[in-house]
């Protein structure tokens, strides 16, 4: 492992003013997104949609530092035969790859999940590196139980169990160590879901337990913190919580939480949006960066909060490509500003 090079890539991924586009929807997830805009999820349509994003010159060159791809996409070529990975590189962004293989039920822990994909990971990483990937991503999913039965956020107050937190942290660290051995920067994503009716303080407590355990495992498995990026959730109220925390409260509690668990050796933290609205995700990131000074760079690694608007504007029609690119550039610019704490809500209204 060459740590200086890993650190260089990690720092580039969190370049001030830029952030990461999470375009790594698995086939099931992209189908759901396409269903919502009435587009059939064929291999060509998925390619056309992602090609539209990666050819968004303004967004990609000014505000996007890296793109997380799904396995299918990293091997795809644009309509003119150029590998999609090359489009990303030509725009000055870094290609990355999601390497987890989704979740499975965790035995003896009803309602909880463990992320899988460690088998043959070393060989897969070598192939992805050869194709151009310089960072990877693995997402662990931790649910916060609440009332009711069935579905995320409803599994009861004993969720998450310490078992789910430990096995997921262990897998995250195994993945991260394998990435660094393959000269690939790991994005470590322990996502505490915002589904459910819990309040912001319960989210804070659970996320603190999850992050502490994750960093403990990373240390045990000798992951070099200078060569990784953390992708956490924010401390935020559950979607169904009757009392929704304000933007300022989310920002202050998230910064306090991260300061208590994330060592300063980590070069950057790139948040997931997790189901927040586009503008909320931007406002929260901006408010955190306005707090400063912080020991690490704080930016975005959004999926839905960057793509919902371009997906709607595009709606599968070649005639709408320019509109889709404009919508993507706008969200990327807003989040780029939030990554330096220079966004304000007025910019959204003026653009509308
Ligand atoms: C883009 O969505 C990613 C893929 O999810 P699936 O494997 O379930 O299809 C997801 O991992 C994403 O990279 C992050 O969770 C961030 O996305 P959001 O939408 O929460 O910002």
TrEMBL record:
PROSITE patterns: ALDOLASE_CLASS_I
Pathway in which this enzyme or protein is active: Carbohydrate degradation; glycolysis; D-glyceraldehyde 3-phosphate and glycerone phosphate from D-glucose: step 4/4
Catalytic activity annotation: beta-D-fructose 1,6-bisphosphate = D-glyceraldehyde 3-phosphate + dihydroxyacetone phosphate
Keywords noted in UniProt: Glycolysis, Lyase
EC number: 4.1.2.13
UniProt cross-references to CDD domains, sorted A to Z: FBP_aldolase_I_a
Coiled coil: none
The organism's place on the tree of life at top rank: Bacteria
Family that this chain belongs to: Belongs to the class I fructose-bisphosphate aldolase family.
NCBIfam families given in the database record: FrucBisAld_I
Protein name per its UniProtKB record: Fructose-bisphosphate aldolase
Naturally occurring in which organism (per UniProt): Bradyrhizobium jicamae
Origin organism lineage: Bacteria, Pseudomonadati, Pseudomonadota, Alphaproteobacteria, Hyphomicrobiales
């Amino acid at each position: 492992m060459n740590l200086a090079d890993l650190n260089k890539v990690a720092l580039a991924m969190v370049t001030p003013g830029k952030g990461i586009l999470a375009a790594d929807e698995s086939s099931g997830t992209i189908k759901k997104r396409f269903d919502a805009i009435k587009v059939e999820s064929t291999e060509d349509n998925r390619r056309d949609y992602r090609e539209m994003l990666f050819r968004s010159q303004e967004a990609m060159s000014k505000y996007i530092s890296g793109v997380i791809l799904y396995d299918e996409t990293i091997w795809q070529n644009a309509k003119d035969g150029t590998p999609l990975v090359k489009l990303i590189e030509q725009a000055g962004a870094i290609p990355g790859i999601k390497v987890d293989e989704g979740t499975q039920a965790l035995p003896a822990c009803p309602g909880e999940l463990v992320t899988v994909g460690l088998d043959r990971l070393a060989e897969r990483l070598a192939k992805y590196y050869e194709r151009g990937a310089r960072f990877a991503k693995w997402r662990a999913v931790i649910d916060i139980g609440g009332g009711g039965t069935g579905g995320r956020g409803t599994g009861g107050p004993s969720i998450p169990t310490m078992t789910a937190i430990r096995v997921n942290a262990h897998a995250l660290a195994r993945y991260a160590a394998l990435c660094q051995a393959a000269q690939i920067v790991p994005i470590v994503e322990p996502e505490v879901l915002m589904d459910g009716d819990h309040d912001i303080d319960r989210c804070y407590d659970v996320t603190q337990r999850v992050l502490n355990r994750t960093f403990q495992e990373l240390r045990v498995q000798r992951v070099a913190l200078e060569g990784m990026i953390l992708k956490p959730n924010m401390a935020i109220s559950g979607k169904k919580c009757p009392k929704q925390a304000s933007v300022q409260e989310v920002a202050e509690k998230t910064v306090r939480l991260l300061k208590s668990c994330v060592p300063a050796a980590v070069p950057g933290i790139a948040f997931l949006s997790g189901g927040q609205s586009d503008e909320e995700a931007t406002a929260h990131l901006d408010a955190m960066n306005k707090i400063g000074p912080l020991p690490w760079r704080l930016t975005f690694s959004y999926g839905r909060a960057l793509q919902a608007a371009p997906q709607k504007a595009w709606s599968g029609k070649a005639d709408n490509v320019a509109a889709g690119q404009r919508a993507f550039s706008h969200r990327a610019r807003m989040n780029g500003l939030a990554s330096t704490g220079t966004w304000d809500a007025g910019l959204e209204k003026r653009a509308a």
